[in-house]
TrEMBL record:
Residues 36-109, 172-234 form the NTP pyrophosphohydrolase MazG-like domain. GO terms for molecular function: ATP diphosphatase activity. Coiled coil: none annotated. It comes from Phenylobacterium deserti. This is Nucleoside triphosphate pyrophosphohydrolase. InterPro entries: MazG-like_dom (IPR004518), NTP-PPase_MazG-like_C (IPR048011), NTP-PPase_MazG-like_N (IPR048015), NTP_PyrPHydrolase_MazG (IPR011551). The lineage of its organism: Bacteria, Pseudomonadati, Pseudomonadota, Alphaproteobacteria, Caulobacterales.
Length: 274
């Protein structure tokens, strides 16, 4: 038996909460929504966060509005499942982040002051460390860096944590030397035909590259997204030019496609210089 949707004159967030409660209702709700758990929904939560980042990258504010709604739905979904278990509800989630933001901004909501931005960042990290200690977490400095983060992002966060206590290469040149060292070790394993060790060395290369990104204050995920987009743009150029010749990539060869790649790269450089 169906029932009408929650009335549209409710506050939007209240209506969304009511919609989710209805979807999860064992008596006439949506079978798919009802069977979901924190674990099954988690991948969608991560995916929606990336959809938000993609809309921002494209500068599409209309799409961003929609994607933020999708991400908000994920928060509401998790909060609803927790409420059903008697753990917490959406209001508790909002209350917790309200309290955290006030606590972490004493220079805004109390009389504390910071001399500069670096002092503010140090104060922020000190407050987070105190929160971790209060919760009895993080026996190691690295313990609460989430395992579920994208590997490159987690590598940056791990190296950043270690850098706080001085476990860091002093200069960019030192990190670059380590990059070359790790690449040489990877090359050696490839030459030896040991692909298992090569896989491990590849990880070392990626980790030190992430460390280099941290040293340069560059987000490696952002850099790689940019390069991915560039690759897609240039490969589409290859496909377009081949189509004009009545061909597909399967009908072509590396020499022809590489020449078209160089054309696309030259066009990119000309556009950048304009």
């Amino acid at each position: 038996m169906t029932s009408p949707a929650p009335p549209s004159d409710l506050r939007p967030i209240d209506r969304l909460l009511a919609i989710m409660a209805r979807l999860r209702d064992p008596n006439g709700g949506c079978p798919w929504d009802i069977e979901q758990t924190f674990a099954t929904i988690a991948p969608y939560t991560v995916e929606e966060a990336y959809e938000v980042a993609d809309a921002i990258e494209r500068g599409d504010l209309s799409d961003l509005k929609e994607e933020l709604g999708d991400l908000l739905l994920q928060v509401v979904f998790h909060a609803r499942m927790a409420e059903e278990q008697g753990a917490f509800a959406f209001d508790d989630v909002a209350r917790a982040i309200n309290d955290k933001m006030i606590r972490r901004h004493p220079h805004v909501f109390s009389d504390e002051t910071y001399e500069n931005l670096n002092a503010q960042k140090e104060g922020w990290e000190a407050l987070k460390a105190a929160e971790r200690a209060k919760k009895g977490r993080a026996a190691s400095l690295l313990d609460d860096v989430p395992v579920g983060l994208p590997a490159l992002t987690r590598a940056v966060k791990l190296s950043k944590r270690a850098a706080r206590v001085g476990f860091v290469w002093p200069t960019v040149q030192d990190v670059m030397s380590k990059v070359h060292e790790e690449i040489a070790e990877l090359e050696a394993e490839i030459a030896a035909g040991d692909l298992d060790k090569a896989r491990q060395e590849m990880g070392d290369v990626l980790f030190v590259v992430a460390n280099l990104a941290r040293t340069l204050d560059v987000d490696p995920e952002d850099s790689l997204r940019f390069t991915n987009a560039k690759f897609v743009r240039r490969f589409r150029y290859i496909e377009q030019k081949l189509a004009e010749r009545g061909k597909t990539p399967e009908d072509s060869d590396l020499a022809e496609m590489d020449a078209l790649w160089d054309e696309a790269r030259a066009a990119d450089k000309a556009s950048d210089a304009a």
